[in-house]
Amino acid sequence: DTEVTQTPKHLVMGMTNKKSLKCEQHMGHRAMYWYKQKAKKPPELMFVYSYEKLSINESVPSRFSPECPNSSLLNLHLHALQPEDSALYLCASSLEGYEQYFGPGTRLTVT
Amino acid sequence: AQSVSQHNHHVILSEAASLELGCNYSYGGTVNLFWYVQYPGQHLQLLLKYFSGDPLVKGIKGFEAEFIKSKFSFNLRKPSVQWSDTAEYFCAVNALSYGKLTFGQGTILTVHP
């Protein structure tokens, strides 16, 4: 099974809302990632978790808060977002240094 | 810092034409190289990968890529494209010392039937 699942598929939230994105994989991968992808642009790395510890934060604003409750799950908590944060948020997992498997993404719209 | 450059933003071909998409990266150390494809409305899928060994690697759907270390290049090729190859293609590099994947800007391929 090479599947990474993400929920929800679509999310519309106001600038004062708090919401969470969820990601799950059962491939035994110990590295998990959050990316942001704007239309017609490549994915931009946001966070990397390695063995459930945050190893890379690409200077992401604090209104995005990642969490890795266990080796299969990755969350992204959202609070007080701005309209420019509207994008496709992708989760991925991998064995470290090897190919990353991507989920279908959550299409986020901030109103 | 590592960077990845894809030569073409948009390529338009007719079915059965040959395809070559260029990718160059800037990093002098050990790298793992990838091509990903994103079909319209679908998620990123791995097309092929290079870690070591034979610099000519074959991927899914008839795609192949050649790693030329001296040119810091990893070009994607397909001898005969199909309409179903219409998609966006991303070259990506993982410089092992950085521990993260860097994507090129992407090339949109449109294949006319």
Termini separation of chain A (Å)?
36 Å
**Helix-strand pattern of chain B:** EEEEEEEEEEEE
What value does the Rg of chain B take, in angstroms? 13 Å
* Helical amount of chain A: under 10%
Mean pLDDT reading of chain A: 94
The percent of residues in helical segments of chain B reads under 10%
Oligomer: heterodimer
Structural notes for this entry:
The complex is a heterodimer of chains A (111) and B (113). Chain A has 111 residues and is mostly beta strands. Chain A is 0% helix and 58% strand. Chain A contains no helices and eleven strands. In chain A, a hairpin with a 2-residue loop joins strand 5 (44-50) and strand 6. The radius of gyration of chain A is 13 Å and the shape is globular. In chain B, the strands form three sheets. In chain B, strands 2, 5, 6, 10, 11 and 12 form a six-stranded mixed β-sheet that branches. In chain B, strand 7 (56-58) and strand 8 form a beta hairpin. Chain B is globular, with a radius of gyration of 13 Å. Classes of the chains: A mainly beta (111), B mainly beta (113). Chains A and B meet through strand 5 and strand 10 of A and strand 5, strand 6 and strand 11 of B.
Fold blueprint:
The complex is a heterodimer of chains A (111) and B (113).
Chain A: E1 4-7, E2 10-13, E3 18-25, E4 31-37, E5 44-50, E6 53-57, E7 64-70, E8 73-79, E9 87-94, E10 101-102, E11 106-110
Parallel strand pairs in A: 2-11
Antiparallel strand pairs in A: 1-3, 3-8, 4-5, 4-9, 5-6, 7-8, 9-10, 9-11
Chain B: E1 3-6, E2 10-14, E3 19-21, E4 23-26, E5 31-38, E6 45-50, E7 56-58, E8 64-68, E9 73-78, E10 87-95, E11 100-103, E12 107-112
Parallel strand pairs in B: 2-12
Antiparallel strand pairs in B: 1-4, 3-9, 5-6, 5-10, 7-8, 8-9, 10-11, 10-12
